[in-house]
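Morning. Coffee machine broken again, so started the prediction first thing and wrote up yesterday's gels while waiting. Chain of 192 residues, entered below exactly as on the submission form.
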Amino acid sequence: MQENNPELKNKIIDAARELFVKKGYYHTNMPDIVKSAKVSIGAVYHYFKGKESLAKEIHDYSVQLLEENFQNKILIRNTAKERVHTFIKMMFEWTENDPVLVEYLLFARPQDIFNEKISICSSEGFVLVMDIIKYGQQNSEIKEGDPYPYYAILSGSVSRYIELYFDKKLELPITDYIEKAYEITWNAIKKE
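Came back before lunch.
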């Protein structure tokens, strides 16, 4: 019987996530994952029942990282202004430091293997970003009224910059756009 080896399991997860981003979930098969991770098929099936359970574990791990980063970096800020700035900074730095994970979170999750449709506009990411907006409205820092337009401005700005980064359209590293993205976004949502 094979022992549990966290490094081996993470190697499989990392390889699968990268393949899901590069080739897509449906164009990736178990032999691709075995080859990329440089492990045996037995090792993959020791940790995962199949590609679907592997994708669900990748999803859970990725969301856990997002929520931990949100908790440790954003919710500790006292103002919505600081939270917006920290959110943009966190996402741009994360994109530069771990582009595969961010691209997976935003664009490559196989939605139909989950019980609900997930995207940047729903589920975990939606709740976290909406919390920033509602916090700002409660503290009279963000414009009153329907929070959805302000959510769209914040999440849309961040996701579009990240998409431009992945499409290699930005002339500078994405982190060089933190202050400008923050300034434009904050000016659009702040209460006058």
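The mean pLDDT is 89. Going to sketch it on the whiteboard this afternoon.
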